[in-house]
Write a structure and sequence with these properties.
Elements lengths: L2 H17 L4 H7 L3 H4 L1 E4 L2 E4 L7 H13 L2 H9 L26 E2 L2 E2 L1 H19 L13 E5 L6 H9 L8 E5 L4 H9 L6 E6 L6 H18 L1 H4 L3 E5 L2 H7 L6 E3 L16 H7 L1 H20 L6 H15 L4 E7 L6 H13 L17 E4 L10 H6 L6 E6 L8 H20 L3 H10 L4 H11 L7 E6 L4 H21 L11 H14 L5 H4 L8 H13 L2
The protein binds 6-O-phosphono-beta-D-fructofuranose (F6P).
Length: 552
């Protein structure tokens, strides 16, 4: 129980009741400075949150809320290496990976920054040697292709960042295998020449069944082509579990470690980012780290009202706990960020999708949010119907670059920008029945028909959205944006008193899947032979039997 937090929530609820008497458009009409009052500019990043149904009193209560949940102290705890992941007794220090390398942070009395520095230098040497052909494949070829095998945090970040920074690629081509579905690895390796391919096995624990199984298949594929004895020349391991790598047989100088204080979904800044570095080079990767560090500084130092992650976090709390909006759409108007919503999905839902507080009690308020989304303008032609007219209100987060990398494509760019701005405007202003009738009649639709059609063509409006605008999708900006979202998730987690850094909710399914495997093994278990599968429930037995009968 946090009475001060509950009091802040009660105040926010009162403000919501008051605000409900006015639409957002009316709030804009009443305050000519609304955009300035409800936007934050930081360097070449702008957060416009003026199209949320709030006013200045809400921001004042946000400040109370920050005090009520001891936000500043909690931020400090994270940045100074306190073991805030209480169920795993670990520090949470992804911020160290992008920090000034001459600074220091102590974990268990040991300064971790020299290790961070050494790891970056080791990666730089290796990546440069691969990119300039000093390290060649077992057949003496330059590595033209790299496969990153990983899943969850060991896949989503590497893939999203690699794709986002395509204009900066001047290294080998990067491919991704994550799913255990054999079609995934099959399609990737079938398009590649093993003699010119480097395989990265990325797994924090080096036990994840999907990654280990895919890695074994990749090893087999490689061995068949270059010989078992040479396969190691084509493999790299990235993990915190160095003992397990040894069992796999990867050469010591091809092993890149990191640390248990880096969570999987926060690991893109560590050696898990190796495929990104191979693609864009170390200088660009350092810019990426720099951008994230700048956001860390902003988060640490700015007061609530001028602090992007805090405002974005409390807006999330406002939407979930006060307005009862249970989902959130991430809408990058930036095709290269098409994988960004999936990345944020893991970051947000694996961090805050929890119902037990850090004190071991049931949560008293809704926590977590269902995150989804896709790049605009494509998504306009799929799910925007629901955003505009559905019965569920979905706060939207638009993302837009002011500049593109492509020259001579102004027509495309202007259309992209116009669509992004138009969508957030449409969500806010809507269109009344009277307006629809007027427009239809002007177009020559008979009165009766206009009346019949109008309810279907009405837009409720008053739907909240924020826009993140940036100069250009370059490495530094991307680093900043990812760090912004990381800290936003942290702010929400602190408000709900969660441990945002464990993920026990993924374990049960993993365990049951391993039991289920025995049901598929016809040879070993006599219980399977009578099609009863031991203790399985009736639905599972039915499905197992149906699968058997469908199998060719
Ligand atoms: O299943 C969830 C999870 O543990 C994620 O948290 C993690 O990012 C992913 O699996 C992959 O784990 P690893 O990097 O250890 O293979």
């Amino acid at each position: 129980m946090n009475l001060k937090r509950d009091a802040a929530f009660a105040n926010l609820r009162q403000l919501k009741n008051r605000l409900d008497r006015l639409t957002m458009s009316e709030l804009f009409a009443l305050n000519p400075n609304r955009f300035e009052d409800f936007s934050i500019k930081y360097d070449d990043l702008l957060l416009d949150y003026s199209k949320n149904h709030i006013d200045k009193d809400v921001i004042t209560v946000f400040k109370d809320l920050a005090k009520a949940v001891n936000l500043k102290e909690k931020i400090n705890d994270m940045f100074t290496g306190k073991k805030i992941n209480i169920t795993e007794n670990r520090a949470v220090l992804h911020i160290a990976l992008r920090k000034d390398l001459n600074s220091s942070i102590l974990v268990d009395g040991k300064d971790i920054m020299p290790d961070v520095k050494e790891s970056l230098e080791k990666m730089e040497t290796f990546v440069n040697a691969i990119r300039n052909g000093e390290i060649l494949s077992s057949s003496g070829d330059k590595f033209t292709d790299v496969i990153n095998i990983g899943i969850g945090g060991s896949h989503l970040g590497p893939e999203m960042v690699t794709k986002a920074l395509k204009p900066y690629h001047d290294g080998p081509k990067i491919h991704f295998v994550s799913n255990i579905d054999p079609s995934h690895i099959f399609d990737v390796i079938n398009s590649l020449d093993p003699k010119k391919t480097l395989v990265l096995i990325a797994s924090k624990t080096f036990t994840t069944i999907e990654t280990m199984t895919n890695a074994k298949s990749a090893w087999k594929w490689m061995s068949q082509s270059v010989g078992e004895e040479n396969a190691g020349e084509h493999f790299v391991a990235i993990s915190t579990a160095l003992d397990k790598i040894k069992e796999f047989g990867i050469r010591d100088d091809r092993v890149f470690g990191y640390w248990d204080w880096v969570g999987g979904r926060y690991s893109i800044w560590s050696s898990i980012g190796l495929c990104v570095i191979l693609a864009i080079g170390m200088d660009n990767f350092r810019e990426f780290l720099k951008g994230a560090h700048e956001m860390d500084e902003h988060f640490l130092n700015e007061p609530v009202e001028n602090n992007m992650p805090i405002i974005l976090g409390f807006l999330g709390v406002w939407h979930i706990n006060i307005c009862n909006y249970v989902t959130r759409a991430i809408l990058p108007y930036d095709q290269r960020l098409n994988a960004f919503p999936s990345y944020i999905q893991q970051l947000d839902m694996e961090s805050n999708g929890k119902s037990i507080t850090s004190d071991g009690e049931n949560v008293s308020e809704k926590t977590g949010v269902i995150v989804w989304g896709a790049a605009g303008t494509n998504s306009q032609h799929s799910f925007f119907q629901l955003l505009h007219q559905g019965s569920e209100i979905v706060p939207c987060e638009f993302m837009l670059a002011a500049n593109e990398h492509e020259e001579g494509m102004k027509e495309h760019k202007d259309l992209l920008v116009a669509n992004c701005l138009a969508q957030s405007q449409a969500l806010m202003v809507g269109r009344s029945i009277q307006e629809v009738i007027r427009i239809l009649k002007k177009r020559g639709v008979p009165h009766e028909e206009a009346i019949r059609l109008a309810p279907h063509r009405k837009f409720m409006g008053n739907r909240p959205s924020s826009t993140i605008l940036y100069k250009k999708l370059d490495p530094k900006t991307l680093g900043k944006i990812i760090a912004l979202y990381e800290h936003r998730v942290f702010v929400e987690g602190i408000t709900w008193n969660l441990d945002s850094f464990d993920q026990w909710g993924v374990e049960l399914g993993k365990e049951l899947a391993s039991d289920m495997l025995t049901c598929l093994d016809e040879s070993s278990d006599s219980k399977n032979k009578d099609n009863n599968y031991g203790e399985q429930d009736a639905s599972t037995v039915g499905l197992l039997n149906a699968i058997k009968s469908f199998q060719e």
